[in-house]
Amino acid sequence: MTFESPGYLFLLLLLLPAAAFYVWRLKRNAATLQVPSTSPFAGLPRSWKEHLRHVNYAILLAAFALIVVVMARPQSNDSWSQSNTEGIDIVLVMDVSYSMKLEDFKPNRLEVAKTVASNFVAGRPNDNIGMVIFGKESYTLCPMTSDHAVLSNMVNSLDFDLVDGSLTAIGNGLVTGLNRIRHGEAKSKVVILLTDGSNNAGDVSPNDAGNVAHSLGIRVYTIGVGTDEDFEMTTGYDVFGRPIRQTIKPDLDEDLLRNIAQTTGGRYFRATTKEKLSAIFSEIDQMEKSKISVREFSRREEEYLPFALWAIALLLVHVLLRQTILRNIP
Fold first, then answer.
1. Which of 65, 101, 326, 330 has the fewest CB atoms within 10 Å, counting from its CB?
2. In three state form, how does the secondary structure of 228-289 look?
3. What is the pLDDT of residues 25-58, one digit of tens each?
4. What is the CATH number of domain 85-295?
């Protein structure tokens, strides 16, 4: 424990003269009730009220000491703690191209992926997790972090307007994810790549990105989402405000995703429903874990409240005794 204003603690030195003054006043033995002679009372035992009067003064001094401590503002110490825990480094690489608006998953593919990813993050409290999104280009939504509350908020706020979703750059998205995770401490490093399309943009071949992942010892789990049926989606609105619907044919390149997974020692999954996507993430959740070092910071907090409450309680007891049992006779 530390004090924000330790100078106030010097006031505690006043307790010594206060106690000395009380003892000196007792020796003077000043009477409140004057009588001609005290000899008739000489053999009588001392009243318990007399002892209680001494206790009440001690209560007053204790309350004063507590008030001084409150004024000095006691606080807990700032501290760093380091512990070893079981965990892996994970980067979620998620497709946010416009085809993720398709409604074969309700309400749409992206919303379902966000929900499942958020639940996955919540179930991995000891992992360092980051997130990359991609459409025509790739973008780091969240760097590697153990602060999963921040990551979950970013996942939940994910929308289509963060990147140009007109095309799909799978290779660029994977390389960006590899750059985020390559310097992590964990022995096991994993990229989870989720897409519903094929590579049609970017300057990095997905297979080349897979080879880079293999050379870095990073496993890539690939997930292809969506059904094999044609679906309609709203692509805009006409001059009368009516939605313009366009039929979208499945464009998932499963061979590419299988090859990336096989090259890196990962595995390819196909999710055609929300339930299957959840089951896939649950299966990935069973991966091996390795020990990582976690350093946590504890912020200094005010600790004056217990002292203040005790001071108030003692003052109330002191006043109550003075006004009842120990009340002086006029």
1. 330
2. CCCEEEEEEECCCCCEEEEEECCCCCHHHHHHHHHHHCCCEEEECCHHHHHHHHHHHCCCCC
3. 877 765 555 555 555 555 555 566 666 777 888 8
4. 3.40.50.410
